[in-house]
Amino acid sequence: MNILFVHHDTCLYGASQSLLALVEGLRSRGHTCTVLLPQAGPLVQELEARDVAHDVIAWQSWTSCERQWFPRRLASGLRRLHRNRRIVDAAARQCAKRQPDLIHTNSSKTPFGALLARRMGLPHTWHFREFLGGPYSVGQVFSLGRRISCELIRAWSSALVVISHSLRRQFDSVAGRIPIHVVYNGVMSQSDVRQCCHTPWPDGDTLILALVGRFEAWKHPLVALEAMRILKDQHEKVRLLVAGSGEEAEVQEVRGFVNRHALHDTVELLGFVKGVKTVFARCHALLMCSTGDAFGRVTAEAMAYGRPVIGADAGATSELVQDGADGLLFRAGDSVDLAGKIRLLAHDRHLLAGLGENAVRKAQQEFTVEKYAESMERIFLSFTGGC
Fold first, then answer.
1. Residue from 132, 125, 126 nearest 170 by CA
2. pTM here?
3. Tell me, what's the pLDDT at 235?
4. The CATH number of the domain where 26 resides is what?
């Protein structure tokens, strides 16, 4: 089977990492994969290093900032849809050289894969990875409006794949018209989980936490920093490693908070870290403060390393983390409650170890690349006649 993936991003954060894992998993099962991107970037270098075929075509998204005035948002969405239609013929001629059997759009943020599949007469499946609008919104919505967009999704797709049951509930209106499959992302192979889960704890009596990911408003990094300020004032032995970056304004906001509250001895800013292994080797647990994660790749990665997650009771985090069994949940946005959960682990290493052991078992059962690739392969084969 030859699969063409249309991917919206060129950085190396969660969605791109999930794409790379899926491509590797499918190639190991004998399938051919090509990736279509809107521009060059770090992901292109990673694809080249892995010898994955790829093309760059400057297509447009169909999402906008939800704060934008709707008429302006609609006009922008229509213009971008028109631009996509203008370049789809040339894109089809270019992609035909790859001889795909199916086109899979790896994000809800663009309709270009659907337009391309229609022009080439191929099955199209669509991977939704984001909360667009609603209580867990990442700040983006469909430019054309939800009703029109869902109608187009139904018309332009053979199936929809979502990365959590929490996200699936946002698309109940689509259910019944086309099949919707819940498939958790695979974050590492079974053998890697078996190896990573033996990563030793850091030495010493200080509880070391990690916050990993891009700085964005809906990820609420300041909630974690405020919790650390509270714990510092209470003279708790805790530290926080912050691995991530973002737009200059978000970076300055994080740095400014650390400077204003003199947290330099408590919070270490690592910047963007390509591989999380070094971060998890230095910490006991992960903080997940986001309210908009529809899966949370780093949540699953932490579990695979035996690091329990203290997560916000929001989005898919409360689906992945079972409170008191393999992690802890705190009230979303509540730094005081978060500080209390951190303090609990700082004073109860037996609880910390037990949560970590259960987290590994969940990762082995739910979040492996093998299970991810097998599930996606089964969906793809149902539309390609088993080729």
1. 132
2. 0.90
3. 96
4. 3.40.50.2000
